Amino acid sequence: MSSESYFDWTARLFDRGRIFHKPEALRGIRVLDMSMIIFGPATADYLGELGAEVIRVEMPRSGDVMRIVAPQGFYWKNVSPAFFAQNHSKYHVAIDVHRPEGQDLIRQLAAKSDVLIENFRAGTLERKWGIGYRQLREINPRLIYVANTGFGQWGPFIKRASYDALAQAVSGFTAVSGFANRPPLKIGIYIGDYFGACLSALGVLAALHYRDRTGRGQFLEVGQCEALLRAMDWTWLYAGLTGKNRPQTGNRDPAACPSGIYRCTDGFVAVVAASDKEFRGLCRAMGREDLSLDPRFATRADRGTEAHAEALDTDIGAWAREKTRAEVEAAARQHGFAAARVATAKDHYEDAHLGARGSVWEMEDPVYGPMVEHGPAPKLSETPARYKWAAKPVGFHNEYVLGRLLGLRPEHLQELEQKGVIGKWADRRGPKPPDNWEGEGLVG
Amino acid sequence: MPDLPWEDWIRQADDPRGAFAKPEALDDLLVLDVSQQSVAGMVCTAFLAELGAEVLKVEPPGGDPARAWGPPDFTHKGEGLAYLSEGRNKYYITLNLEAPEGRDLFHQFARRADVVIEAHPPGRMDAWGIGYRQLSSENPRLIYAAISANGQFGPRAAEPMPEYDLTSQAASGLTFITGEPESDDAGEAGVPTKAGPWLAGYAGGAWTAFAVLGALHYRHETGRGQMVDVTPAESLMRYLEYTLLWYHIDGRIRERVGFYDLAVFPYTFIRVEDGWAFIAAYTDPNFQALCRVMGRPELTQDPRFATVWARVQPDNERAMREEIETWSLRKTSDEILEKVMADPGPGVVVFGRVETPIEVLSRENWWERGCFHKLSDPVYGELTLQMPVWRMTETPPRIRWACRPTGYHNGYVYQKYLGLGPRRLAELKDGGVL
Fold first, then answer.
1. Mutation test of the interface with chain A: which of B248, B333, B349, B367, choosing the one with the most A Cβ atoms within 10 A?
2. Domain extents in chain A
């Protein structure tokens, strides 16, 4: 048994610098990403982090509308920065699926793919284009076909369109978040899309596990409203047993008191000290041992009673107000409770810990140059997740994918391009490469 | 073209009511869950158990302290509601990992297991001799996932901190960009604001299960196991879109904007006669559809609203909401939804009421889809539970039972896996090992 300290050992095992020395968990798995915007492309993206080869299909010329969904109209190198977060390491092809020859290309690609992802309205690929699950599984019975939608493939609501925040609203997620008697809280990111996509990716790997055992593919679907429903912990049990709605409690976690978000001299900090031991630690840190002797706060249940929780909130707020975020965090480490600054982009960017873990991921892309993004979430010791390159302009990899994978000759590709069955970027922001691009990053 | 329309075919093929007739995706897996006081841990193993894995929930003899977690005003048969909500399908045994004999027994389980999920302070399992480097030497095929606040490596890893959803949400960066901007009107609500449910915990559980299954595929190809390191904070952080890239490109620190949106508008909450609703129509065709539905076609020519770019300017977003509310405040959400659904297009308006949990539970759609079920549990009685999220044609997930008390399956599991009968179990219990 090695005498190497635990943290020396983990530093070696998970060394960010050795990620590209190590194999990929999903090498050999090919994903055909027919989806658009976020809830679909993100599923493919997460599979790609673990090494799946992802072919991203967009419409010729315009491509995905997400290319022009730009925060405050901010474009970077001719594309919205919002396009990158769910489109790493993909091979971008542009095929017009409305055309029979385009549908045929999809069939050929599906025959060679392990996973297909789409997020069209239920039944669209089958009815309109003859490339739905029932058709494709005839070509490829091992195919794992994933459909991500708002409300699912069947049921009373399938005719309704859905976006992330619609899912927040109709699932009840909004109604149990935020402060009472205020307008609804809109989560700062499109959580219905990203969390839904994550659950969808999980489902794909479960299907892949089954296929590894049996050779059989299957169809699976995830509704983003249903994904948020699933994530609402004790809300439903509570409603069923008490007949009551879970209350809005602002920044307090009603199941872990005291808890809250407090203003410091230099921002905000979150604090939780829910167990008896943690609570005593917090009291010591605040120089308020009297609180740990106060019968109002004696047990976890006592501390959770609303009036008592509010009283504690006031005391903690007064203490934190005089401190920096770092001082509160240090007090938590010293006295054994939980505290974390409400982190900003700048905090993350400058955080050596996150950098060492690859959660702040620096890379150089051949087309877009040096980039810094939030990196893959899980860290794997043998087959680490990684980003290889950034998203690319519309149709960037047409020749490479259609030529190498389908064996189409250059003359045939030219013909398809002339007919508009395949294509490249339109000459406008969103689909097209940066102005100073001179062909870097093209493959084959 | 097949005979049965797609919606009818797929309903037959993936209706969860048919789940028990079909195989399970993960029923070849033995999972040891030694996580305690961890939402991500309990959610990860709930997902795996829904998909068929045999999950042994290993608790200290006094039970996982998380059994007390839930709303402070209500417990059910002595359990906190949070623990009950994610207890599904697991086998409950006790084992004292602080006792050497307990750790020996754990070694025996771990030699046979496919997966271990733990959420102890980093290094503790290792100090007990049952961390990944010890277990993998006996079982090189093992997938070992460790969940913690700061992770197993990196400058802050050796400063363990209790992991809670609130602090993980804050560390993730999501909290800073959520909530109402500071203002007199917002008052105490004008601060960075957390999501109500345990979003970091659920993201952490999802990413852990995802990584474990990815590792299992690699093991299928190569025979090799590995270790996985997940934090709920980084799990949520991964969803932060362009937040860090924007800072890198332009030094811009993304701020919270309440119910406005930086990139698409309208995409917001509006008041309706009977409460609040979400409405979105941000592309040109969709915005035209909204103007049609509102009977305000001239708005498409208004320079404040005529393009995607114009519509996301902050002053124009405010003006847009006001215009919409002059219409929506005079209508119920049902009336608006009817109008939205009746519009022939082109373009689509996305609309839905902000519903409370009780209202959601009254909507037939979710019950028909199998999202909720009133489970009759022999121990806990009738429970309204959220059901597994995936609809799958070959290997649908399912719930067999909601939860069990501490040590409920000791007899069965110790007999099955370690050949230990009732008398031996009683001895171990007396000795404080179970």
1. B248
2. 6-231+370-419, 259-343
- pLDDT, tens digit, 9 for 90 and up, residues B318-348: 999 999 999 999 999 999 999 999 999 999 9
> Rounded to the nearest 5°, which phi and psi values hold at B216?
-70, -35
Pick B278's closest partner by Cβ from A169, A348, A372: A169
B367 in reach of chain A (CB within 8 A): no
Strand, coil or helix: what is B280? strand
Report the alpha-carbon distance of residue A304 to residue A257 in Å, rounded: 5
Q: CA-to-CA distance for A290 and A307, rounded, in angstroms?
A: 18
User: Residue B149 has what pLDDT?
Assistant: 98
Phi, psi of B350 (to 5 degrees): -100, 125
Active-site residue flag, A193? yes
The type of residue at A19 is I
Distance CA A271, CA A338 (A): 6
Average pLDDT over residues B100-112: 98
Task: Show which of residues 214-233 on chain A sit within 8 Å of chain B, judged by CB atoms.
Answer: 216-223, 226-227, 229-233
The highest-level CATH class for domain A259-343 is alpha beta
Residues constituting chain B:
434
Identify the structural domains of chain B with CATH numbers, from first to last: 6-239+368-430 (3.40.50.10540), 267-355 (3.30.1540.10)
Structural tokens at position B103:
């750790």
CB within 8 Å: A245 and B276: no
Residue A172 has pLDDT above 70, yes or no: yes
pLDDT in tens, A368-404: 999 999 999 999 999 999 999 999 999 999 999 999 9
Report the chain B residue with the minimal C-alpha distance to residue A124.
Answer: B6
Query: With pLDDT > 90 as the criterion, what percentage of chain B qualifies?
Result: 98
- Catalytic one of A33, A64, A96, A193: A193
CA dihedral defined by B409, B412, B415, B420, rounded to 10 degrees?
A: 40
- Which DSSP string corresponds to B154-189? STTTTS-----HHHHHHHHTTGGGSSPPS-TTTGGG
| Pairing status of strand A379-380 against strand A338-341 | unpaired
Q: Does A157 reach chain B within 8 Å, measured CB to CB? A: yes
The reported pTM is: 0.98
- For B212-234, how does the pLDDT look when each residue is reduced to its tens digit (9 = 90+)? 999 999 999 999 999 999 999 99
Examine the predicted complex and report whether its ipTM is higher than 0.95. Answer: yes
Q: Which fold has domain A6-231+370-419?
A: Rossmann fold (3.40.50)
CA distance to partner chain A, nearest, from residue B143 (Å): 10
Structure tokens at A287: 């120089």
Given pLDDT bands bounded at 50, 70 and 90, which one contains residue A2? low
Q: Do B389 and A222 touch (CB under 8 A)?
A: yes
| Chain A CB within 8 Å of residue B423 CB | no
Answer yes or no: are the C-beta atoms of A187 and A168 closer than 8 Å. yes
- pLDDT of B70 higher than 70: yes
Per the rule left: phi > 0, alpha: psi between -120 and 50, beta: everything else, B272 is: beta
